[in-house]
Amino acid sequence: MEIWLNPACSKCRTAVSELDAAGKDYVVRRYLDTPPTVAELEDVLARLALEPWDIARTADAGKLGLALPAKDEEHRGEWLELMSTEPKLIQRPIITASDGTTVVGRDAASVAKVIDAG
To answer: pTM score, two decimals?
Structure first.
Protein backbone atom coordinates (compact mmCIF):
# COMPACT_ATOMS: atom_id res chain seq x y z
CA MET A 1 0.00 0.00 0.00
CA GLU A 2 1.22 3.50 -0.80
CA ILE A 3 -0.09 6.86 0.40
CA TRP A 4 0.72 10.14 -1.29
CA LEU A 5 0.56 12.77 1.40
CA ASN A 6 1.46 16.19 2.65
CA PRO A 7 2.33 15.86 6.35
CA ALA A 8 0.91 19.34 7.00
CA CYS A 9 -2.55 18.21 5.82
CA SER A 10 -5.06 17.16 8.49
CA LYS A 11 -6.85 14.78 6.07
CA CYS A 12 -3.52 13.06 5.40
CA ARG A 13 -2.77 12.72 9.10
CA THR A 14 -6.25 11.28 9.68
CA ALA A 15 -5.78 8.74 6.87
CA VAL A 16 -2.41 7.68 8.29
CA SER A 17 -4.01 7.24 11.73
CA GLU A 18 -6.72 5.05 10.20
CA LEU A 19 -4.15 2.94 8.34
CA ASP A 20 -2.13 2.56 11.54
CA ALA A 21 -5.22 1.63 13.56
CA ALA A 22 -6.04 -1.05 10.97
CA GLY A 23 -2.50 -2.42 11.23
CA LYS A 24 -1.76 -1.83 7.56
CA ASP A 25 1.76 -1.65 6.17
CA TYR A 26 2.25 1.24 3.79
CA VAL A 27 4.86 3.34 2.09
CA VAL A 28 4.64 7.11 2.48
CA ARG A 29 5.31 9.28 -0.51
CA ARG A 30 5.64 12.95 0.24
CA TYR A 31 4.45 13.92 -3.18
CA LEU A 32 5.41 17.58 -2.76
CA ASP A 33 9.04 16.47 -2.32
CA THR A 34 8.87 13.76 -4.99
CA PRO A 35 6.17 14.79 -7.45
CA PRO A 36 4.49 12.09 -9.50
CA THR A 37 5.44 11.78 -13.13
CA VAL A 38 2.85 12.17 -15.86
CA ALA A 39 2.86 8.37 -16.24
CA GLU A 40 2.22 7.90 -12.51
CA LEU A 41 -0.63 10.40 -12.63
CA GLU A 42 -2.08 8.58 -15.65
CA ASP A 43 -1.94 5.30 -13.72
CA VAL A 44 -3.63 6.76 -10.63
CA LEU A 45 -6.32 8.44 -12.74
CA ALA A 46 -7.03 5.19 -14.59
CA ARG A 47 -7.43 3.38 -11.26
CA LEU A 48 -9.70 6.15 -9.96
CA ALA A 49 -11.62 6.36 -13.27
CA LEU A 50 -11.26 10.15 -13.07
CA GLU A 51 -9.79 12.97 -15.11
CA PRO A 52 -6.93 15.21 -13.91
CA TRP A 53 -9.23 18.12 -13.12
CA ASP A 54 -11.30 15.79 -10.90
CA ILE A 55 -8.39 15.43 -8.47
CA ALA A 56 -7.11 18.99 -8.77
CA ARG A 57 -7.15 21.52 -5.98
CA THR A 58 -8.38 24.23 -8.32
CA ALA A 59 -8.83 26.79 -5.55
CA ASP A 60 -5.09 26.60 -4.90
CA ALA A 61 -4.22 27.55 -8.49
CA GLY A 62 -4.84 31.22 -7.81
CA LYS A 63 -2.66 31.12 -4.70
CA LEU A 64 0.10 29.67 -6.84
CA GLY A 65 -0.43 32.24 -9.60
CA LEU A 66 -1.43 29.56 -12.10
CA ALA A 67 -3.96 29.70 -14.90
CA LEU A 68 -5.69 26.36 -15.33
CA PRO A 69 -6.36 24.80 -18.74
CA ALA A 70 -9.87 24.03 -19.92
CA LYS A 71 -11.41 20.87 -18.46
CA ASP A 72 -11.58 18.86 -21.67
CA GLU A 73 -9.78 16.06 -23.48
CA GLU A 74 -7.89 18.52 -25.69
CA HIS A 75 -6.18 20.02 -22.63
CA ARG A 76 -5.77 16.81 -20.61
CA GLY A 77 -2.03 16.62 -21.28
CA GLU A 78 -1.59 20.20 -20.06
CA TRP A 79 -3.34 19.26 -16.81
CA LEU A 80 -1.05 16.28 -16.32
CA GLU A 81 2.10 18.30 -16.96
CA LEU A 82 0.92 21.08 -14.67
CA MET A 83 0.07 18.68 -11.84
CA SER A 84 3.42 16.96 -12.21
CA THR A 85 5.35 20.24 -12.05
CA GLU A 86 3.03 21.84 -9.45
CA PRO A 87 2.07 18.94 -7.17
CA LYS A 88 0.31 21.30 -4.74
CA LEU A 89 -2.57 21.10 -7.23
CA ILE A 90 -3.13 17.39 -6.47
CA GLN A 91 -5.83 16.38 -3.99
CA ARG A 92 -4.56 14.47 -1.01
CA PRO A 93 -4.15 11.90 0.31
CA ILE A 94 -4.17 9.40 -2.53
CA ILE A 95 -3.93 5.82 -1.30
CA THR A 96 -3.30 2.76 -3.47
CA ALA A 97 -3.80 -0.73 -2.02
CA SER A 98 -1.74 -3.72 -3.10
CA ASP A 99 -4.64 -4.99 -5.23
CA GLY A 100 -4.70 -1.70 -7.16
CA THR A 101 -7.72 -0.19 -5.41
CA THR A 102 -7.07 3.54 -5.29
CA VAL A 103 -8.91 6.31 -3.47
CA VAL A 104 -8.63 9.97 -2.67
CA GLY A 105 -8.82 9.42 1.08
CA ARG A 106 -10.48 12.62 2.20
CA ASP A 107 -13.18 10.83 4.21
CA ALA A 108 -13.45 7.77 6.43
CA ALA A 109 -15.48 5.76 3.89
CA SER A 110 -12.83 6.16 1.20
CA VAL A 111 -10.02 5.18 3.55
CA ALA A 112 -12.07 2.17 4.74
CA LYS A 113 -12.48 1.06 1.12
CA VAL A 114 -8.75 0.91 0.56
CA ILE A 115 -8.12 -0.68 3.98
CA ASP A 116 -10.58 -3.44 3.14
CA ALA A 117 -8.91 -3.97 -0.24
CA GLY A 118 -5.33 -3.94 0.88
So the answer is: 0.92
